[in-house]
Amino acid sequence: MQPSAPAVETADEIFRARLARHHDELEQLFMELYDDPTALDDLETMMAQTYAARPADLKALDEARESDPEWYKRGDMFGMTLYTDLFAGDLKKLADKIDYLEEQKLTYLHLMPLLQMPHPANDGGYAVEDFNNVDPTLGTNEDLANLTAKLRKAGISLCLDFVMNHTASSHRWAEAAQNGDPEYQDYYFCYDDRTIPDQYDAVVPQVFPNSAPGNFTWNERMNKWVMTQFYPFQWDLNYRNPKVLVAMLASALNLANLGVEVLRIDAVPYIWKQLGTNSRNLPQVHTIVRMLRIALECVCPAVVLKGEVVMAPKELAAYFGTPEHPECHMLYNVSIMVNLWSALANGDTRLLKTQIDKLNALPENCWFVNYLRCHDDIGWGLDEPEEERLGIDPLKHKKFLYHFYEGAVPGSWAMGELYNYDEASGDARSCGTTASLCGIERALITHDRPALDVAVNRDLLMHKAMAFLRGFPMLSCGDEIAQLNGWDYKEDPDRIEDSRNLHRSKFDWEKAALRSQPGTLQNRLWEGMADLRAMRSDPCFAADAWVTTWDAHNDSVLAVVRKTDSGTLLGLFNFSNAPQTAWLDSAAGVVLQPSADLAPYEALILRQ
């Protein structure tokens, strides 16, 4: 049955009212970049059409979220990230596994890239050849819409990646460009000779200097150099062309209309290129992200933006925008993830504490998704000036860390692998699951029960420390059952070249079946995650809680205080393999017990 004319008119009024609130700013931002009124009209027409096509149940969700705009900051937010194919096979089968997610009281599910991609070279799905359709190996758009509906019914918001920086070289735009169409060559950065590419390369850092050196690739079909900052099969988009922006925003809104509630925008700092700069964190990036935020607020305000910004804390605040002109709702907490692993390896929390202090000093609108492991590597981007201040040699420390987590340092319990090792610079990153990096795999192989108990404590310590910080926690699927490294990737010729596949293995449903059996390794981790959720049910995890580190007068112990009108919660985390005592001072408004003793790798949560 078609809605009546008045109903349609009322619905249109909602969109028009939202657009009216933002129109002047949207026009200013768009014209500042493009000075193209026709393209602006195209953008606003597209937004209106997408709103008109938005399903009624999602419009109802929009209305609910407009009255609860900080829904994603609730203390009970609990997330997980996983690959559809590795977890269940495809989207239909994943929909049949929602009860497993509900058991964990998830409120947030991040599915790794599932839009149409080339096979096998797709960088884990981050080379997209069609931003508007699900990859046929995983299902259809209808399957995705059905899944998001079932997840919403279960109280779970779906997050999908939106790869803004580049397309696959097999995308229809890239195909047209390779066939000689100048219109689509202008969707990318294409050059007849090395003159301009050399100017870029002189100042733009390389993303993968070892596995994909340089920022340009020669294309035989086009007889041109094309910008490929990541891999040769990923072509950087030219956002100087307004058609690119309008088309990409249309694809983002299309995903929202399929029920996606969180868009993780990939490699955000890279999306604007400018000669003479390092093409990172440029002002135009923020203009584009702000326009994306405006488009969402007009068409689908239930949807939030999560940015992947692998930058120093001083660079992060800009990606949230301001309360008056917001950009991302939240960011991945990359720097804390790295510092947690650093603290675990050397039993020293000083760098971690400093990094937490810097993030806590950011404005109140800054919010983070905290995690230990994800689909990617651990890149050892520590605060080098702070390391030097503490008397730590940054390069020696980095080498110690990546060798430690590959198990090549005497006394290491970890089992992992290097990723993107660069002999010239001495740089490398680390791969492996949480359980294997914490020592569980090595203890199982050596049948060392005491070592296994210690490794489990390490694992739970890391999860509790991560979940106690400002923001909300996200597990990597398998962490809840201590899933180990998938070494069998080395037997697959399509996967062997990328060591990140070590922690991208099929979910072990046989091991998961042991989660309810007391005494099993899987049950210990499963119950540990339940304890973590119980911890976060405390009122001190309210969005407006005051969160700060505290001096424990012991470099091996991280102390964090959470305070609200309901009281004070103290978190103490011993990153050492020896018993430790935290000595705690009270201050005005915060009265703490004078001391607390902690066992090795103990996480102690105390109501004060």
CATH class of the domain at 335-366 and 375-536: Alpha Beta
How far the N terminus sits from the C terminus, by CA atoms, comes to 59 Å
Strand content: 15-25%
Poorly predicted runs are 1-9
| CATH architectural designation of the domain at 335-366 and 375-536 | Alpha-Beta Barrel
Biggest sheet layout = 8 strands, parallel, barrel
CATH homologous superfamily of the domain at 335-366 and 375-536, by name? Glycosidases
Helix content: 25-40%
Q: In the CATH scheme, what's the topology name of the domain at 335-366 and 375-536? A: TIM Barrel
Would you count the extended β strands for me?
A: 24
Described by the principal axes of the CA atoms, the overall outline is globular
- How many helices? The count is 22
3D architecture notes:
- Residues 81-533 form the Glycosyl hydrolase family 13 catalytic domain.
- One of its GO terms (molecular function) is amylosucrase activity.
- This protein has 608 residues and is of the alpha/beta class.
- Among the domains are: 172-236, Alpha-Beta Complex (Oligo-1,6-glucosidase, domain 2); 335-366 and 375-536, TIM Barrel; 546-607, Golgi alpha-mannosidase II (Immunoglobulin-like).
- 38% of the residues lie in helices and 17% in strands.
- An 8-stranded parallel β-barrel has the order 1-2-5-11-12-13-14-18, surrounded by 4 helices. A 4-stranded antiparallel β-sheet has the order 19-20-21-24, with helices on one face. A 3-stranded antiparallel β-sheet has the order 7-9-8, covered by helices on one side.
- Residues 1-9 have low confidence and may be disordered.
